[in-house]
Queue: 3 jobs
Job 1
Amino acid sequence: MRLLVGSDLHNNARAKAWFCDLTDTVKPDVVLFLGDFITFEPLSFARDVMRDMASFGVPTLVIPGNCDPREVLLLIDQIDGITNLHNHAVQLGDLRFAGKGGSIICPSPTPFEEPDEGFARTLEPLMEGTDVLVLHQPVRGFRDQIVGVGDVGSESLLKLVTVHRPRLVLSGHIHEAKGLDVWEATYFVNPGALLGMNAAVIEVGKRIKVEFKQGNE
């Protein structure tokens, strides 16, 4: 199954158009967006992005980011053609996807965050048989490094992943942490920020293959 993954758009109309064009080129089986449609506002831009995503013609799974106001969940549920994966799980073909948006507490307050203690609690009932874990917040120690700061990932998510061992963990949030980590049989991918014209194409079969896409800013 071919996945097209984007994250952290942050109001960038040009990047939105590039991602839509990439969908036509890549021809994915599933599109995933890992949150941060906008930076706090306006909701109208987030609505426009979702309507564009609803036109892709393939299953499109989305979660909110920490910079998205919580009202964005209502928008997701109002638009046919996209699926709200926040605190939900879906089966598509041979793969089970489970997701959670938002982040743990940030140094500067954002609309969609909560303490790390208990952050993974709503995911726990969804994890049995999950192949692909879809997150905005990275797991502690994987694609979560900020230069001069270090690891800023979630400890509670690390405990969850250690127990349930999904094949693929997707996360965004940390724009500079684009890339791939592999721990035992689990692949951790941050596609990079769409804001900077970044995305990832991931083939999930017997093996997992990751290709990073870069557009012109």
Note: The CA atoms of residues 16 and 49 lie 7 Å apart.
Job 2
Amino acid sequence: MKVATKLFLLIALAVLLAGCSDLETTDQGGVILKVQFVNVPGSIGVNDQNEVLIPTIQIDSVVQNPTGGSSSVMDVLVDVYEVTFSRADTGTRTPPAFIYNRAATVPVGGTLTLSNFPIMGIEQMRSAPLSDLLFENGGVDRETGATNIRINATFTVFGRTVAGENVASTPRTETIEFITSSTIAQ
């Protein structure tokens, strides 16, 4: 299957799952994936760094039907992490999606812990609207006139069970404030 087709299918799946309101979803493999962010930074200085790292992301695999038993064929092989963005303030411009390919396994009934995990790279940090906050661009959001930008980062994990069933967590959203620099008194 071509990369473009896989990406289209992943995006279509993310759009379908975006309507869910809780922090978990089931798949045909009999597991529920729960995503939790730990120690999310409250504000990020756009001029201070080229990427955004979350200190800890925890992905738990819960057996959908505990009385039905479980086996290692329900382990989830995660291969794509996607972060999409929306505005949490009055602006409408957003950075491009961040797609990160990294193989990892969430054992059935277990936990995968990701440390210092990127949710934004240089492409997102140097694209509008965040690029407006760079010193050389004036340090002000051109759309809103504000010196800070609040962005919702929506994180989704994609993979498959060892048995071959597709798995996707329900998107988990965290809000982050972007400022010109954390080293300047606000």
Note: The two ends are 50 Å apart (CA to CA).
Job 3
Amino acid sequence: MMQRDIHLSPKDLLSSLQFKDGDFGEIALISGQQHRAKMCLEKLEDCVKNFTFLGYTFWTGFYKGKKVTVGNGGFYAPDSAFVTEFLCVGGINTLIRLGSCGALKEDMNVGDYVLAADIIRGDGATKYYVDDNYISKVDDELTSKIEEVFKTEGTLHRGGVWTTDALFKETKEIVNPYIEKGAIAVDMVTSPFVTVANLYKRKVAAILAVSDNLITGTLGFADYRFFEAEMKMIDLGFKVVEEL
């Protein structure tokens, strides 16, 4: 039987990767997709790779005098949870997710933005961190700053984001009850990202580009409007950083 309290902590693993205190910045812009992370990387000056582990790579550099960390922070709930722990234990105090989502309202289009206001947990990873009745919360001030920047640059929807683990089980029997709980969008990352950041008492927020619509059946993964929204999201994310 296991006698130790824990097998492996985030600090242990960071140490094994030769990570040192101060290597990360105060602010992080985190994406699931590698290409978004690389677009963020192009914005930084004097950039240093912090480490690569299990396909997740982080760099830290400077943007207009501010030390910023960027990287691909997970595609799904489990990897998003442990990567977010890396970031928090590594000293980052402000975490912003630049992600994507499926829309849960008919009037939402591919390329629109969703600003997470409420987190609706449907994932399995956060059950290991918090009780079922735990309410994960984005930082109000940071979320308002993102809203201020994005609302003049595109169509912005603010509301609940539901995180699921099962992409091919987005059936009406499963989806509709979450819509009734206030979800206007669905993804596979935001819940663990926000929940873990909450537990470490970090400022956290999430802005997502709409890639598809579950109500209309629209699939926009290869739509130019989605790609344009992704590129603009990077620019606007750094504008938020500039104003923090």
Note: The chain has a mean pLDDT of 95.
